[in-house]
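User: I'm preparing a small set of examples for a lab meeting where we compare how different chains pack in three dimensions. I only have the primary sequence for this one, and I'd like the structure in token form so I can line it up with the others. Please keep the answer compact; I'll paste it straight into my notes.
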Amino acid sequence: MFHAIKIELLKSRRTHSFLISTIMMFVAFAWEIVVIKSEFAHPQLQNAGVFFNNQTVDCIILPIAMSIFVARIIGNEKEGMTFKLQGSNGTSIKRIFYQKLAFTMGIFFVLLSIKTIGTVVFSILQNIQLPLSTILIHLSGEMLNVFILACFTITLSMILKKQGLLMAFGFLGGFFGVVLSSKSSYLLSFLIPWIGSAYLAPYKFHLIDGTTYCYELDPQIFLRIILYFVFCVICYIFCKGVISNKEGVLYD
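Assistant: Understood. Below is the structure token output for the 252-residue chain.
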């Protein structure tokens, strides 16, 4: 598997597949810093508000960045009939799915880790000390959401003939992120992968008066992570089943 991931990395470097996604994650980081800096002026937000933007920014950026990245790493190979060549060499379509999923998770883990570290460093420079547990909870939630986005996006990319449709799904996800992330119920944000990061946000807020919000750690965050992990497993089994049923078609 590590050899396969290394090959995927070499192919992506040659086609600059992760360049746009990297730029988008940098935009997300810059966006978060601007918002967080404005919140530091309010004492009640100084700790709890640091990672709260995964209810807004990541709901917009992650679906779009994922669709662009996956469209590039899979679309180029479909156009070049690489899947058919790999099939003739005995590589099953499920194995290709595993490789693409593992590679995508690795890339986004690096990107999200860099973004998280940047946010933590910025917070420290502002004299805000974040508990390690909060940082790990935040990153764990982000990666669970990335996993479920990657499963669905890779599956769609492999079965759709036109990658433009996948891009449309990504931008549609970004639209839903804008519209639903602040308005959705817990059940809705749980079931819609595009806004899963809102469901897994470590902090929630309460409206104190017409203009003031109070941020606090979600006491049910560990239960949410466990439930979402189970949801990820179910979605992974579903996506793997779809790929298996389409194996002969995907090699054509």
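A couple of notes for your slides: The chain has one domain: 2-250. The chain has a mean pLDDT of 76.

User: Perfect, thanks.
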